[in-house]
Amino acid sequence: MLEKWKNNILLFWEWLQTDYGMIFSTIVFLPFGLFLIYKNKKINRNVKIGCMTIGIIYIFIFAGVQAKMHNLSITNENQIKEIKNISETLQDKNEVTKTLEKKVSQFNEYKAKMKPYEALSDEDAKKRKIDADAADKVNKALNEIPELALLSVNDKSKLSDVRKLYDSLSDSQKKIIYVTKLTQLEEKMLQLEADKAKQDSEKAKQDAVKAEEEKKRAEQKAKKDSEDAERRKKLAEETAKGYDSGITYDQLARTPEKYDGSQVKFSGEVIQVVEDSNFTEIRLAVNSNYDTILHCSIPKFTGITARVLEHDMITISGLSDKLYTYTSVMGNKITVPSVYVSKVE
């Protein structure tokens, strides 16, 4: 325990000898000593005043000395930093100098290697110029072809010309050409041609389907025109006989095949009208009886100019045209006699 106290006292004594220790002892112990002198009644008053004065002067002197030492310490640190910076700068300059010397050495080595090429003969130089001109011609033609994204099948002839020019070059001349671009363009052209062939094939199929549809429409129209001509012929033949044939609605409904093409005449109320470019289709309630519905087709070429409207009371004359089937509002299939009309009154 005593040894520990001894060590602590030695450490404290060493610290008191430092700058901060001296400041501490001056601030603490000197005022304490002056205080004891001041309290001692045995000491003369003048002696006390002198001690106090000397103590205060000592404190100011000590503070000034410490401040000066602190400033000197800061100045020394700044000088040390400056010297260190100068040393680092000199070191950097030395490294730069070494780097420059290394580059100069490398340049001299390169120059020594290239020296044999500087002594090329005029014939070699001429050959190099010929090779360069031939390569430039191919490169120029290659640059006139659009890039991959803009290439089209219309550029095929230009691409073929470039390939011919390239194939005509010597091996040394071909080394100057960026042949990868030419190869990429040729591969792209093959793809474009394949796509175009596919499109042409699809278009040919579509055209064939369209032509077939037009052919069918033409055949249907020819068939319809033929049927219309046949009806007009029958109509003309029956016209001479007259429409007051006495054929009834019940006869047309029960035996339509028997009276197909026969002249008929009916009166009644129009209950529905549907018009298109060639016919006016009406449904006629014979004698205003909604249980005896007659389908009537009025062709536009008959010369009937007045339009037929719903709820009109009319008399139609024409040829029996078998039966007509339509779908009612309720969705049921309804079949009624049909008449090809030649006259409306």
UniProtKB/TrEMBL annotation:
Membrane-spanning parts: 20-37, 49-67
Highest taxon of the lineage: Bacteria
Residues in coiled coil: 76-103
Region: Disordered, residue numbers: 194-237
Keywords tagged on the record: Coiled coil, Membrane, Transmembrane, Transmembrane helix
Keyword field contains Transmembrane: yes
Keyword Transmembrane attributed: yes
Protein name: Uncharacterized protein
Organism for this UniProt entry: Pseudolactococcus piscium MKFS47
Lineage: Bacteria, Bacillati, Bacillota, Bacilli, Lactobacillales
